[in-house]
Amino acid sequence: AAGFAITAACMNTQVHYEIGERKKDGTDAPAAGFAGGGASYNAAPKADDMGRPPQDPTVVAVPAPQQRTFPVVIPDGVFAGTQLQVQAPTGQLMMFSVPPGATPGQQVLVPY
Fold it and tell me: Roughly how many angstroms between the first and final C-alpha of the chain, as a whole number?
């Protein structure tokens, strides 16, 4: 569940970033015949544009920040889906959901 929440938050951030960028460059106008918008249709690359570098030299791909993890050993009597409170290397206390297939004594990596 923690991994899902992090993934969902990243996706939400990316969507809002892309919407903001489309508003800046004017590609957020609804496409004709599409109810509720169509910005992603208008912004899709044309077949002849694929594989070419962007024309605007100021456009730079920014790599996603690498996710940090720390090891946690699953305690005895704990099973998949159990919520555990763990302490990250930063000292922050956080909840962690034991992943499917994890067994007592097994070490798993927890993102923080």
Answer: 13
